[in-house]
């Protein structure tokens, strides 16, 4: 397995793109379509093939800065210049008295300095961080993952046998190696199929529907209870650790012999989707590590923010009407098939006890609402569960999370999955989680933090399952 972001063809493409005649291949706004993209929307469907696209977005000398917003004047200066300077908000709390992390393109930095905002630099060269993530994962791939796969093949003689691939991905040796690095979309598909095949009938595969490019929003369903627990990762494509964390929770629920877990499976039926936004995830692995949205073309810009596209107070704040913005809400509610499919699937379930939308980063465990400062009637109950979750989480590795409603804890956001599932689906509990870290590594969380993130998140999940009414 080689994540195609790290492939030789990508390196060659990047070398070509860096030549003066190809300088236009690196747009200021990372959401713009590659210059060679076909006007036919279906042409984007081949992004899983690293040779189908010839441009890899570079973030050389792009900085991530933490801006302290002390006054209304600071906030106005920031928002007045965000579009012209091509800001990419890594955090979104545009409140007075807070701090916000922003990616500033290299060509905008001098102009940004001229704004005289109070800031500190968190990352000097974002591309260097991406390159380090690549280097570390290549070492993992060659020295750990490939070695493990070959060891399984040699020990169990599974190569070439029917079902051999499932045997490889479901073996205990593979399980111990899987969470030590990041994986390609293709290998995530194989991994999920292997868990289903190896469950001895306990689990079934399902799809909430097909993405814009036709990929399944593939999940795993197991348990026998009449109450339903639904959670997923990677609604935002660049948040790779969410995929791995959701998969870790699958292993804990499906493969452990713990009596408490057996009780969960009798009480609940679990519906779990590791990659809710498969098209965007592939783009983040092949051409643009920081791609967040899906891949629907919007003029010269690529994608809609799925988590601003749900039919819940759509467009009432905390989302953008600019197709090039990272939080572009789309032309109308549920214009993205990914959000529409997921909502339809959730509505088909008779009794949703809990829904969790897992994101990164910021270390937050949040409940509705995002669109308004008014808290829901069951806020105390849901926030009490969130408090128990973060307490259990901290006991594992000492990681500290904050909890509360979305509006006050992080920022205003409308058209979100959590608000929709709480208000329309009538889930008893709806939660938005932001995993590690608080900005030091951000979306490029080092591979050695994958397993600890999974372990602590599982402890939090168990605390919720233990305390749901």
From TrEMBL:
Could you tell me what this protein does? Extracellular metalloprotease that contributes to pathogenicity.
Active-site residues (renumbered): 434 (proton donor/acceptor)
**What is the protein's name according to its record?**
Carboxypeptidase M14A
Q: Mind telling me which Pfam families this protein's record contains?
A: Peptidase_M14, Propep_M14
Q: Which GO terms describe its biological process?
A: proteolysis
Q: Which residues form the Peptidase M14 domain?
A: 181-468
- PANTHER family the record matches: PROTEASE FAMILY M14 CARBOXYPEPTIDASE A,B, SLL0236 PROTEIN
Location of the protein in the cell: Secreted
Query: Does the record's keyword annotation contain Disulfide bond?
Result: yes
Q: Which GO terms describe its molecular function?
A: metallocarboxypeptidase activity; zinc ion binding
User: What's a GO cellular component annotated to this UniProt protein?
Assistant: extracellular space
What keywords are assigned to this protein? Carboxypeptidase, Disulfide bond, Hydrolase, Metal-binding, Metalloprotease, Protease, Secreted, Signal, Virulence, Zinc, Zymogen
Q: Name the family the entry cites.
A: Belongs to the peptidase M14 family.
Superkingdom in the source lineage: Eukaryota
* Cofactor(s) this protein requires: Zn(2+)
- Leader sequence range is 1-25
Which InterPro entries did the record assign?
Answer: CARBOXYPEPT_ZN_1, CARBOXYPEPT_ZN_2, M14A-like_propep, M14A_act_pep, Peptidase_M14
């Amino acid at each position: 397995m080689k994540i195609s972001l790290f492939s030789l063809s990508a390196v060659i493409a990047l070398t070509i793109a860096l030549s003066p005649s190809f300088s236009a291949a690196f747009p200021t706004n990372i959401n713009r379509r590659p210059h060679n993209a076909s006007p036919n929307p279906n042409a984007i469907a081949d992004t899983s093939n690293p040779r189908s696209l010839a441009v890899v977005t570079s973030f050389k000398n792009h900085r991530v800065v933490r801006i302290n917003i002390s006054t209304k004047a600071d906030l106005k200066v920031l928002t007045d210049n965000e579009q012209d300077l091509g800001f990419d908000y890594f955090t979104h709390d545009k409140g007075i008295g807070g701090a916000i992390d922003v990616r500033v393109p290299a060509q905008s930095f001098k102009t940004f300095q001229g704004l005289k905002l109070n800031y500190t630099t968190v990352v000097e060269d974002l591309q260097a961080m991406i390159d380090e993530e690549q280097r570390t994962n290549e070492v993992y791939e060659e020295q750990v993952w490939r070695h493990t796969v070959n060891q399984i093949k040699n020990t169990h003689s599974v190569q070439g046998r029917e079902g051999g691939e499932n045997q490889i991905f479901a073996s205990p040796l593979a399980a111990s190696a899987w969470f030590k690095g990041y994986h390609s979309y293709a290998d995530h598909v194989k991994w999920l199929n292997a868990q289903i095949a190896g469950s001895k009938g306990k689990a079934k595969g399902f799809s909430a529907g097909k993405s814009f490019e036709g990929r399944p929003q593939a999940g795993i369903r197991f348990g026998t209870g009449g109450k339903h627990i639904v959670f997923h990762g990677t609604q935002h494509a660049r948040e790779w650790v969410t995929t791995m964390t959701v998969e870790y929770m699958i292993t804990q629920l499906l493969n452990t012999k713990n009596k408490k877990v057996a009780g969960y499976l009798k009480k609940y039926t679990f519906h779990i989707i590791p990659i809710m936004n498969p098209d965007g995830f592939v783009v983040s692995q092949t051409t643009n590590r920081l791609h967040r949205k899906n891949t629907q073309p919007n003029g010269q810009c690529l994608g809609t923010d799925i988590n601003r596209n749900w039919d819940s107070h759509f467009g009432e704040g905390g989302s953008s009407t600019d197709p090039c913005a990272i939080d572009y809400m789309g032309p109308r509610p549920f214009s993205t098939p990914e959000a529409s499919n997921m909502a339809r699937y959730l509505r088909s379930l008779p009794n949703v006890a809990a829904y969790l939308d897992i994101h990164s980063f910021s270390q937050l465990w949040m409940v509705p609402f995002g669109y308004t400062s008014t808290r829901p009637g069951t806020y105390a109950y849901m926030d009490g569960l969130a408090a128990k979750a973060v307490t259990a989480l901290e006991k594992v590795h000492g990681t500290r999370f904050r909890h509360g409603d979305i509006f006050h804890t992080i920022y205003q956001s409308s058209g979100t999955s959590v608000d929709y599932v709480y208000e329309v689906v009538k889930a008893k509990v709806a939660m938005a989680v932001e995993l590690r870290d608080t900005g030091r590594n951000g979306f490029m969380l080092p591979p050695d933090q994958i397993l600890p993130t999974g372990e602590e998140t599982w402890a939090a999940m168990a605390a919720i399952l233990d305390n749901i009414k």
